[in-house]
Structures are given as C-alpha cells and as structure tokens.
C-alpha cells in the first residue's frame, strides 16, 4: 500500500519507518529539509532504539523522505497526519493540523483517485469531523465519504520504546465514519495480524487517546502526592508502593503458582520528580480546557497538573535545606531527557530544576547519555556538559538524579572511596537510600528539615 506520512517527528518518523519495515511503500514528509536529508541518509534525526537499523533496512527500498507534500499525496493512497498539537496556554493549538489539512485538500482537488486522510496526531474529540474534514472539503471542493475518506487513528507509542511499541501494539484504534475509508485503514494495519482492532467513530478514537494519557498522568501525580505525604510523616514511599503493588487486584497472579505478572501501569505508580515530555502535560491541559468548554470541568485532572508542576521544586527544596546559598556551589544534574531511552527534553522536570539552579547562581553540570545536544541547544554555555558519568561527578557539592537512566544506578559505586561525598538527591528513587553517605530521596523523610 502507498502511504504518505505528513510530519516526520517522533510519531511520524517511527510510524513511517515501521510501516515501511512491514512492507508498505512509505513517503515521509516534513517542512524541515534537514530532517528529510537525515532520513534519506539513514541518520535518524531523533534517538530511538532500533530506528537507525530500520532506516538502513528500508530507505531506498520502501521508505523515502521529501519536503514535497503535493508529490507525496498524489503518489499515495492514504495520508497519515502526524504533526504537533501543542497546548497554546488556554487550549489545544490546531494550527499545524489546519495547515496540513488545507495543503492536502488543495492536492485532492487535483487528484482523481480515491484517497484517505487519517489524523494520527492527538487531537481533542470532534477535531477530525469538525475541523479536518470541513477544511479538506473546502480546499478540495470535494465531498468526504464520497470523493475521499477521512479517519482517526491515535498513536500509543512511548518514546524510548517507540519502535517496539509500534511493531507490537496492544491494540489499534480506527475511527471512521464511512466503510470505504475504514476498509483502507484496515488494509494499512493488515500487516499486524492478530492485534486487537477497535473500530469506532472518530470522536471516540480521539477520546480513547486522552483517556489513556490522562489516567497514566493521574497515576503519577497520585504516587507523588502519596510520596510527599510519606516524606512528611516518616514513611518511605517505595515501601508503601511496593506493598500496594502486591495487591492481586493490581498484580494478577497466574494459576498454579505461575510467575507474578506485573502490569505495565505499575511503573506509573511510583513517586518521582514529575512527568514531562511532549504528551502528558499538554494532553492533560488540553483535555481540561476541552472539558471546561464542554461544560464538564475536570477538577481531578487540574490537581494532576498542579501536583506535577510542584514536583521538581521538591528536589530544589531538599537541596536548599542542605545548601541554603547555592551561588557558586557545584551541582550536577543527572539526566535532562524527560525519560530514559529518548533525547526528548520537552517539558522535562530537568528544565525546571536547571533553570532554578541558574536563578540561584549555582554552577551547573549536566550529564545525559543521549540528550546532551538538546540540552546544549536550550541552555548554551550557561551550564557545562559532560560526556561521562564519572567525570560529571567531579567536584560536585550535590548530585541530582532527574532521569531514570539505568547507568545512574552505578552512582554509589562511582562515589565509593571519594574523599568528599556530595549530597545525592534521588528524584527517581533508583539507588538504595543507604548506598551513599549523604542521601535525600523523593517520598522519604528529609535528612534535614
Ligand atoms: P514532533 O514535534 O516531534 O513532530 C512534528 C513534525 O511535524 C515536525 O517534524 C514538524 O516539522 C512537522 N510539520 C509541522 N508542520 C508540517 C507541515 N505543514 N508539513 C509537514 N510537516 C510538518 O511531534 P511528535 O512528538 O511526533 O507528535 C506528533 C503528534 O503525535 C502530536 O499530536 C502528539 O501529541 C502525538 N503523539 C506523540 C507521541 C510521542 O511520544 N511523541 C505519542 C503519541 C502521540
């Protein structure tokens, strides 16, 4: 099947490469020439495990990149829209969705063959039917459901595990209003035999995505709220959570003493310095605004955001309780990416922490195994960057673990024997609390209060 993917960011590029890997004939479109050049040279513009290999397997065969949207739409049967849908401060910003819909519509005006346009971006319920379809109809002068089809197909991949998630989806959600468009989407996903397909209308497909993201964000803020209480009353949140996880309602145990199966959502039930990334913060805020407009305010989700906004400051409070005057003191921030496995730093708690450290005139060193360049692009020479974990610890008065990169578990070993021991503030509770001489952890009673 000939597929064009419009918007070649985290979702567009991973979707395009995976669909090409599954044998479809895919063209990825972006306005940024450099991204397209990189894709065509098999050099991924983003970091995802397995992506470089997939590009090497597919580019020049079933995958190519272009900045020419017209050519891509004319030479494909289906277009997936995967552009960004940021939060503009008061509601979801559909500018990129509108722009692309108009551009595709103008091409459809000149295209005789049937074409299906699918929204893959995360958009609030109603967007496909009341924003995208009318723009396509107006720009093309044609009728949806008759001359061309539209649909909604939300993406559930997790950055850091994006290729594996796309290649082995839990379910595929297809939202459509007309059977011909749905049949084309079915054909697109026929390369994933055996996977559950949810067929529904576009608004429900749009809502499924927000429901999933809002629940996961809620689990995190819930854990953080419990963690903050634990820290106040002298309970270790890690022990509290572990005891809670063992509840069979959360952790099914298979018959005949088979191994305990830990459901994936348990990883979201852990206290830390907050969620970030390009999805949870903006999606929860967009849903709150959407609910408000729809006459269904969402106080629970408002609280999820409030708790999350405060969470990076919990780490700063711990730091200041030990070092009240940070000016000139050396602080090492471990991890800038919003989560391990990615170079994405959008809305990462590290950004808040580094900004606060700079405001207090601390001397900041950052180490991230993958996201150094992204951090440099943002903070420039206001902080220093190291390419080696051990090097990053040199001369630090304090070390703040912000991202759960597995290599940070080596910290106790690296600090062992060092004459001057830095204060370690563990924002992810990833090293044992007695493994370093000066330890503070989220959800643990402060050593200094
Ligand atoms: P992104 O910012 O990484 O990528 C968007 C891309 O679209 C950019 O490369 C941009 O240059 C391109 N673009 C913008 N306008 C264009 C145009 N007119 N023509 C061609 N290209 C254009 O965004 P992302 O993280 O991939 O997210 C895309 C959508 O998918 C969002 O709605 C997001 O909420 C959703 N989503 C993201 C994730 C994730 O983990 N990142 C997961 C699921 C869903």
Instruction: Return the CATH topology of the largest domain.
Output: Rossmann fold
- Strands across the major sheet, in which order? 3-2-1-4-5-6-7-8
Q: Hetero groups bound?
A: nicotinamide-adenine-dinucleotide
How far is the first residue's CA from the last residue's CA?
62 Å
Which architecture of the largest domain would the CATH scheme give at its second level?
Answer: 3-Layer(aba) Sandwich
Strand-residue fraction?
5-15%
**Count of folded domains:** 2
Average of pLDDT: 96
CATH superfamily membership of the largest domain: NAD(P)-binding Rossmann-like Domain
* Total beta strands: 14
Helix content: 40-55%
CATH class of the largest domain: Alpha Beta
Largest sheet: number of strands, sense, barrel closure: 8 strands, mixed
What coarse outline follows from CA principal-axis ratios? Answer: globular
Structural class: alpha/beta
Element pattern in H and E:
EHEHHEHEHEHEHEHEHHHHEHEHEHEHEE
Q: Unreliable segments (pLDDT under 50, ≥5 consecutive)?
A: none
By DSSP (H or I, 4+ residues per run), the number of helices equals: 16
Radius of gyration: 24 Å
Keywords for this entry:
2 domains, about 15% strand, Rossmann fold, globular, binds nicotinamide-adenine-dinucleotide, 8-stranded mixed beta sheet, about 450 residues, 6-stranded parallel beta sheet, single chain, alpha/beta
